């Protein structure tokens, strides 16, 4: 699969194969449920870029015949004020100081939006938007969100930890040296259950998964620096290079604990998963597709 060995080329080819099959099955079953397109990969690997182009591609392909929405897990971060309160409540946990880790999102808001999309009844839904440049890179939710009309046919959702599998029991946790060394991760692991149950482990959601597999997870430091430089250039606000490093440091235990198993499982999508191996320059070096249904 994938004659065009580029991220977008492989992604479009994957979607062109599986989305029509989904619509055929939905029509035969007289079903109006939305198909989620879940995009997961390390920070700076190209998730948002790919999600933007997937959205444009699907709009051009299906025009007015299908309703399509795009969102990021980042859009559901706490407001700046709520994040400060959260920081204080978990001040002993370094990994929860500032946005990023599982637990630093407005779960009730995320649940309401996901539940509305699953129900898919005729109505309007306002999806939140988040501005990462505000407060010198600390970020804040935008005053106005993005209003979409339900029912939806396709929902694009991107996020850096989508598909990560939380450790299930005390015996599994006790076997992990990282959790003994980095005890702050125990709370992050517990928080991750909310997201898994709501999204990639939710039996009510049918999904296609697109996964970016970094050839070296350390690439995330360089990728995230490039992102922040572009953000500062376009908005005049953002984190310094040292702040970016400290920011990524909060994420890294999660990569160490979950990322390799997640990539190897090829199980992000409940229908099918595309895994793209990418190098530091985001060139594709491997393409794997796994169909579940």
Outline:
One of its GO terms (cellular component) is nucleus. The chain is of the alpha/beta class and 293 residues long.
Walk me through what this model shows.
The structure is a single chain. By secondary structure, this protein is an alpha/beta fold. The protein has a single domain (7-161, 168-276), classed as Rossmann fold. The chain is built from 9 helices and 10 strands. It has helices at 7-28, 47-62, 80-89, 107-119, 170-174, 177-181, 184-198, 219-235, 241-265; strands at residues 35-40, 68-72, 123-127, 130-131, 140-141, 146-150, 154-159, 206-214, 272-278, 284-291. A 6-stranded mixed beta sheet has the order 2-7-1-8-9-10, covered by helices on one side. The chain has a two-stranded antiparallel ribbon with strand order 3-6. A two-stranded antiparallel sheet has the order 4-5. Helix 8 (219-235) crosses helix 9 (241-265). The longest helix is centred in the last third of the chain and has 25 residues, at 241-265. It is globular and about 55 Å long. The model has no long low-confidence stretch (mean pLDDT 92).
Radius of gyration over all CA atoms, rounded: 19 Å
- Give me the CATH architecture, please: 3-Layer(aba) Sandwich
Assembly form of the protein: single chain
CATH class: Alpha Beta
Number of strands: 10
CATH H level, superfamily name: P-loop containing nucleotide triphosphate hydrolases
Tally of contiguous helical segments: 9
Mean pLDDT over the residues: 92
Organism: Torulaspora globosa
Protein name: Phosphoribulokinase/uridine kinase domain-containing protein
Subcellular location: Cytoplasm; Nucleus
Keywords: ATP-binding, Cytoplasm, Kinase, Nucleotide-binding, Nucleus, Transferase
């Amino acid at each position: 699969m994938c004659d065009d060995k580029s991220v977008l080329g492989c992604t479009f080819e994957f979607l062109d194969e599986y989305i029509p099959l989904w619509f055929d099955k939905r029509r035969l079953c007289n079903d109006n449920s939305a198909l989620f397109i879940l995009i997961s990969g390390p920070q700076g690997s190209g998730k948002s870029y790919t999600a933007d182009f997937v959205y444009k591609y699907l709009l051009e392909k299906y025009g007015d015949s299908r309703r399509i929405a795009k969102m990021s897990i980042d859009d559901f971060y706490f407001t700046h004020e709520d994040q400060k309160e959260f920081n204080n409540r978990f001040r002993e946990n370094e990994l929860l100081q500032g946005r990023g880790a599982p637990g630093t999102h407005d779960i009730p808001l995320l649940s309401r939006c996901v539940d509305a999309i699953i129900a898919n009844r005729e109505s309007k839904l306002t999806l939140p938007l988040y501005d990462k440049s505000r407060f010198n890179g600390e970020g804040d939710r935008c005053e106005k969100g993005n209003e979409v009309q339900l029912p939806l046919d396709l929902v694009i959702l991107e996020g850096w930890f989508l598909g990560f599998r939380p450790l299930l029991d005390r015996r599994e946790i006790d076997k992990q040296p990282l959790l003994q060394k980095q005890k702050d991760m125990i709370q992050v692991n517990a928080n991750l259950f909310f997201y898994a149950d709501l999204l990639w482990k939710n039996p009510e959601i049918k999904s296609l998964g697109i996964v970016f597999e970094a050839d070296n997870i350390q690439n995330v430091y360089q990728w995230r620096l490039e992102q922040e430089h572009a953000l500062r250039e376009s908005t005049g606000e953002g984190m310094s290079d040292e702040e970016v490093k400290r920011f990524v440091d909060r994420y890294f235990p999660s990569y160490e604990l979950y990322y390799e198993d997640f990539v190897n499982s090829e199980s992000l999508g409940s229908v099918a998963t595309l895994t793209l191996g990418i190098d530091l320059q985001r060139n594709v070096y491997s393409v794997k597709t796994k169909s579940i249904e």
